[in-house]
Amino acid sequence: MPQSARCSLPPCLRAAKPRSGEARRSRSSDSRRQAKAAALAAGLCVAGVFAGGVLSACDVTIKDGDIKNVSVHARASQEWKRQYPLVDGGRVEIVNSNGPIEVVAGSAGGVDVVAVLEAQAMTEALAKVILGEITIEETVKPDHVRVATATARRSGRGGFEVSYRVTVPATARLELTGNNSRLKADGLQGHVKAMVVNGGIELTAMRGTIDAAAVNASVTVKMAEVMGPVRIESTNGRVSLEIPKAAKATLNARSVNGGISVSGLTTADEAPGRRIRTLESQLNGGGPEIDVRVTNGRISITGTDSPGVRSPQPR
User: Fold this and answer.
1) Which of 170, 201, 236 is the last residue of a domain?
2) Strands 110-121 and 74-85
3) Which of 70, 118, 196, 248: disulfide with 311, CB 3.0–4.6 Å?
4) Per residue in 265-300, pLDDT tens?
5) Does residue 180 lie in a domain region?
6) 73: pLDDT confidence band, cut at 50, 70 and 90?
7) Are residues 87 and 26 in the same domain?
8) Are residues 166 and 264 in the same domain?
9) Do residue 207 and residue 128 come from a single domain?
């Protein structure tokens, strides 16, 4: 069983001790190695105390004489706020290297950004150092606002996360890029482009064109109206798509190492509810293209009741 060394407040250090009374040399060697690892773990905690002055907590797991995991609990955070003007139909771009992004529709003419920066480390002092190294880059033009998280690369000293909440005009064009992120947007009418590696994408009450791509992440898209092309792609993750039952669209879906399930829609090629891998169908006579591609994952397509749904007539 793994053994643990834990220090909560100095000088309280509790390290795993080697078993006594071992007769065999191999067991004695293992015990010595276990003791050294426990001593090193305790030393790490003590070093944290002297480095920062205050140590919230330090958990070290020792297995087979090796330190397998170190969890630290000291945190430092701050809030960052900005407001920008934006012309009608302007573009808003948010880039985040670690942490969620949430976007909601607001009044025309401006963009509000609230970011919470948080750093984690073994000591409060080190967490504050890491927090000071997180920067947010801004590019501001009348028709384009770009906000991006930037920080120096760190190795083994701690971690950080930046959480964004952004309010944009409903007609704005939106671009979200994330790594280890959950990307969310709600109630937008303009074009939305969302790309993420490790995390997820959730777009709800959409009325504009969609371009969503994910790796090691799930994608959920809920359309209030289908007024233009919708493209969704995922590698190693499922895709869930909801569209109004009355929407006119040309549906193309393909799943590799997965399946496609359809409910609430009448498709020309396959019976509703049947599990398939490829699907091509004209919905309600056809319209804008909906293209869904998944590798290693399921595709779920659902028709919903949405009063007053409008879709453009096919040309």
Assistant:
1) 170
2) antiparallel
3) 248
4) 988 655 444 557 899 999 999 999 999 999 999 999
5) no
6) confident
7) no
8) no
9) no
Name the residue type at position 60. V
Question: Per the structure block, which two tokens stand in for 116?
Answer: 């919470």
Q: Are residues 132 and 205 in the same domain?
A: no
Query: Is 261 within a domain?
Result: yes
Amino acid at 214: A
pLDDT score recorded for residue 48: 41
Q: What are 79-134's pLDDT values in tens digits?
A: 999 999 999 999 999 999 999 999 999 999 999 999 999 999 999 999 999 999 99
Q: How many CA atoms lie within 13 A of 49 on its CB side?
A: 16
Say if 10 falls within a structural domain: yes
Strands (E), the chain: 3-7, 58-63, 66-72, 74-85, 91-96, 101-106, 110-121, 134-141, 144-151, 159-169, 173-186, 192-206, 210-223, 230-235, 239-244, 249-256, 260-263, 278-283, 289-295, 299-304
Domain final residue, candidates 141, 170, 199: 170
Q: Which residues contact 233 (CB under 8 A, 6 or more apart)?
A: 212, 213, 214, 292, 293, 294
Integer Cα distance of 311 and 208 in angstroms: 11
197 and 315 belong to one structural domain: yes
Are 160 and 207 part of one and the same domain?
A: no
Question: How does pLDDT run across 211-234, given as a tens digit for each residue?
Answer: 999 999 999 999 999 999 999 999
**Per the structure, how many domains does the chain have?**
3
The reply to whether 23 and 55 lie within a common domain is yes
Looking at residue 266, its pLDDT comes to 84
User: Are 21 and 59 in a shared domain?
Assistant: yes
**What span, in angstroms and rounded, lies between the C-alpha atoms of 55 and 36?**
22
What lies within 8 Å, CB to CB, of 189 at 6+ separation is 105, 170, 171, 207, 208
Residues in the chain: 315
Q: Find how far residue 228's CA is from the centre of its chain.
A: 26
| pTM summary value | 0.75
In a domain, 16, yes or no: yes
Largest separation between any pair of C-alpha atoms in the chain: 86
Residue 54 near residue 75 (C-beta atoms within 8 A)? no
d(CA 137, CA 101): 16
